[in-house]
């Protein structure tokens, strides 16, 4: 458990789906992912003078290389606040552990005076879809049961609800019902947060805010039957968790920067 030293609004930044590679000029669908990440981080630092933590929610790497995780560590190492990482379907845990093992990057529960953030691993080895193992659900149960009056934000890589996109909805969390069964026992849960879908969404269900966040590189077009790349720019999500359990959040995107995207590609 990691303590976030604030008794006021907890200010978080989420970045996701960075898709970095062993090569500095590595790309996804034609976009150089390290370059786009740096542009997003520059925007974060320009827009937010006070941040308590950054959540990095999966598909950190495109090729699973140790070097790609080192590149991410270097890019985030200049930030004046901690970051916390989760794996996605493209990540390789053994390579990721070379960088994260024994560091705060592996923390699963973050707590401030009024909030806790629970980070869950939804990765399934060799698969694109997600699943929360019993051990992950137990981490969640334990954290929620011991919240001691704190409100809760829960994050993972894969989406637990439909995105109204046929191809994307085949690769979400396969046992989302088990997740929701746990969540619904605890009325202090306020937010579920994820990446994976490379697009922004904001829903409210049973009093819980359901949020997805753009990738720091290529975006996927919402509400499509088949794989389709969007033309909108990379971005990130900011989240302010207030002491009374309310939430302020939004998405910011880079602008005035040219990104090359190969729209002819039919999968990633």
Strand order of the largest sheet: 1-7-8-9-10-12-11
> Can you tell me the residue ranges where pLDDT is under 50 for at least 5 consecutive residues?
none
Shape: globular
What's the structural domain tally? Answer: 1
Q: Count every beta strand, where a strand is a DSSP E run of 2 or more residues.
A: 14
Report the CATH architecture.
4-Layer Sandwich
Mean pLDDT rating: 93
Query: N-to-C SSE series?
Result: EEEEHEHEHEEHEHEEEEE
CATH topology: Purple Acid Phosphatase, chain A, domain 2
The proportion of residues forming helix, as a percent range, comes to 10-25%
Estimate what percentage of residues fall within beta strands. 15-25%
The major beta sheet can be summarized as: 7 strands, mixed
The CATH class label is: Alpha Beta
Q: State the helix count.
A: 5
Radius of gyration: 17 Å
Structural class per helix/strand content? alpha/beta
**C-alpha termini separation:** 35 Å
- The CATH H-level superfamily is Metallo-dependent phosphatases
Plain-language structure description:
- The protein has a single domain (2-253), classed as 4-Layer Sandwich (Purple Acid Phosphatase, chain A, domain 2), CATH 3.60.21.10.
- The mean pLDDT is 93.
- It is α/β, with parallel strands linked by helices.
- The chain contains 5 helices and 14 strands.
- 20% of the residues lie in helices and 24% in strands.
Briefly say what this structure is:
With 268 residues, the chain is an alpha/beta fold. Helix content is 20%, strand content 24%.
